[in-house]
Design goal:
There is one protein chain. Strand 10 (144-149) and strand 11 (152-158) form a beta hairpin. The protein has 209 residues and is α+β, with helices and mostly antiparallel strands. 14% of the residues lie in helices and 30% in strands. The chain has helices at residues 25-30, 103-112, 117-120, 166-174; strands at residues 17-21, 40-44, 49-51, 65-67, 69-75, 91-98, 101-102, 126-128, 132-133, 144-149, 152-158, 184-186, 194-196, 202-206. It is built from 4 helices and 14 strands. The strands form 4 sheets. Strands 2-1-12-5-6-9 form a 6-stranded mixed β-sheet, covered by helices on one side. One of its GO terms (molecular function) is metal ion binding.
Length: 209
């Protein structure tokens, strides 16, 4: 029998990175976008992972690379059409993630009605922290996330401000696509997104974790 895959290194074997857009009202406002009545989803490939300490790569085709801080939810087992009431039973743990975004490219895609793939899905566009087991975070809707660039605080937000809860998101996504063990869901970013440039240092964390 094959040895079980370690969830603590989910980024080495997990297949899917499913991202939820505009899940914080303040971020929707800063992007001049409407607050949504249901989640908007997009995908990143597994080659987007950049484990903690790895460099974030800036695509040659962008002049405006932005950081977006997100809580990632790591799936512990396969789920299809998961009921919202049972959704948290499918969670193995969490990770802090960045949804790196080529903002100028995304703006052009929006104008032309095109998908966001060029803006969101490039290599190393998903920096990810060490895995945090579910037991260490009793309530993922009561966390404060922060991000600094070169020591300057840029983003600080509370997961209690999410528009769509984690159980709702898991249930919603799993009715569209089967989620598998090792997959991660990025749950949206609070306000304060902004640009980074070459040789900037990004630090992020969850208060108290």
């Amino acid at each position: 029998m094959a040895a079980p895959k370690p969830l603590c290194r989910f980024w080495e074997w997990g297949k899917n990175i499913v991202c939820v857009g505009r899940n914080y009202a303040d971020h929707a406002k800063e992007m001049r976008s409407p607050v949504l009545s249901e989640p908007v989803l997009f995908l990143k490939p597994s080659t987007a992972y950049a484990p903690e300490g790895s460099p974030v790569l800036m695509p040659a085709y962008t002049r405006s690379l932005h950081h977006e801080l997100e809580l990632g939810v790591v799936m512990g087992k396969r789920g299809c059409a998961v009921p919202e009431a049972a959704a948290m039973d499918y969670v193995a743990g969490y990770a802090l993630c960045l949804d790196m975004t080529a903002r100028d490219v995304q703006d052009e895609c929006k104008k032309r009605g095109l998908p966001w793939t060029l803006a969101k899905s490039f290599t190393a566009s998903c920096p990810v922290s060490a895995f945090v087991p579910k037991e260490k975070i009793p309530d993922p809707h009561n966390l404060k996330l922060w991000l600094k660039v070169n020591g300057e605080l840029r983003q600080e937000g509370e997961t209690s401000s999410m528009i769509f809860s984690i159980p709702y998101i898991i249930s919603y996504i799993s009715k569209i696509m089967t989620l598998e063990e090792g997959d991660i869901i990025l749950t949206g970013t609070p306000k304060g997104v902004g640009p980074v440039k070459e040789n900037d240092e990004i630090q992020a964390g969850i208060h108290g974790v």
